[in-house]
Write a structure and sequence with these properties.
The chain is an alpha+beta fold and about 150 residues long. The chain has helices spanning about 15-20, 45-55, 60-65, 85-95, 95-110, 120-140; strands spanning about 5-10, 35-40, 70-75, 80-85, 140-149. The termini are close together.
């Protein structure tokens, strides 16, 4: 089946853990503003897009304490919750459709995806993440990603 990645907004780290610490068989992210994708890891694969969107270097992004910070874990690591940086959220809020297309185009050739990566899929992902970021900012929320391996 492959890994699933759920990108979502939560008020804070404690709230973010509740998105994956589900009781009664509820799906992860129930009740949270979120979307699920395959194949866009928030630490490795999203890094080039974050560099392109924010203008920060990879080293600056990686040094950010919120970049891929482990917020919570279910069981023995079946599901992890990681934080995304506030600078990514804020930058995605400022980018228009044309700029998101440019980021997706450059991201698709960054080397983190196979040569045949789907540009329209990356563009759609960035548009979804941008829309999530805008809603999160309005609510004073931060961005997170749960990973089910």
């Amino acid at each position: 089946m492959g890994a699933l990645f759920g990108y979502y907004a939560a008020a804070d780290d404690e709230d973010a853990v509740q998105a994956v610490a589900r009781e009664g068989g509820q799906p992860m992210g129930t009740g949270y503003d979120s979307f699920v994708v395959k194949g866009v890891d928030p630490v490795v694969e999203l890094l080039p897009a974050e560099v392109l969107a924010t203008g920060r270097t990879a080293a600056e992004v990686e040094a950010d304490p919120r970049h891929g910070h482990l917020v919570g874990m279910v069981g023995d690591g079946e599901v992890l919750t990681l934080s995304l940086t506030d600078s990514l959220r804020d930058s995605l809020c400022r980018l228009d459709r044309r700029q998101l297309d440019e980021v997706a185009r450059s991201w698709s050739t960054s080397g983190v995806f196979s040569a045949g990566s789907d540009l329209s899929g990356l563009t759609d992902f960035l548009e979804d993440l941008s829309a999530l970021a805008k809603r999160a900012l309005v609510r004073g929320h931060r961005l997170y990603c749960w990973m089910s391996l």
